[in-house]
Design brief:
Blueprint: H1 2-28, H2 34-44, H3 53-112, H4 116-129, H5 133-138, H6 141-157
């Protein structure tokens, strides 16, 4: 009977020693267990609802570093997407300007029954060659064809019209 009690005591004592050894190993980070997990959580500080500002600052600094790593990893895509966005925005602005110009030209045509480009061409012919609107209006088909050939030849040779 005494031998059985001594054996039980010895087993309990050795078990206690093992528990102490396990706790020390966990504390040192050599063994995984509840203490190790608590230490890991404390270092990660997964929840920011802590009342300790030092732990919160440590966690926030760690998050900032992780976000910066993510940004660096995604930077080529971000730059490419930003360039595409800027190009699309510029194209949209040019398209809106073209739509506005077309609308103004249509309104001008409805009001004056002549296209603005025609008025500009006639004004330029008058300023450069003193050909008035009267000359332009009374020109025959042969004269208009001759003018077109002269302008086409100048365009082909690169001369100013």
């Amino acid at each position: 009977m005494v031998a059985a009690i001594a054996t039980n005591f010895k087993d309990d004592h050795e078990g206690f020693g093992n528990v102490v050894a396990q706790l020390l190993e966990e504390r040192a980070g050599l063994r995984r267990g509840p203490t190790w997990d608590n230490a890991r959580r404390r270092l990660q500080n997964a929840n920011l609802r802590t009342t300790y500002p030092d732990e919160r600052a440590t966690t926030l600094n760690k998050q900032i570093l992780e976000y910066r790593k993510l940004l660096v990893a995604d930077m080529p895509q971000v730059i490419e997407t930003a360039l595409k966005l800027n190009m699309a925005t510029a194209e949209l602005a040019r398209t809106e300007e073209l739509k506005r110009q077309i609308k103004e030209d249509r309104e001008y045509f409805e009001k004056n029954n002549v296209y603005p480009e025609t008025v500009q061409a006639i004004n330029r012919l008058y300023s450069e060659h003193r050909i008035s609107r009267h000359h332009w209006a009374t020109a025959t088909d042969d004269q208009l064809q001759a003018i077109a050939e002269i302008l086409r030849a100048r365009r082909d040779t690169g001369e100013a019209a």
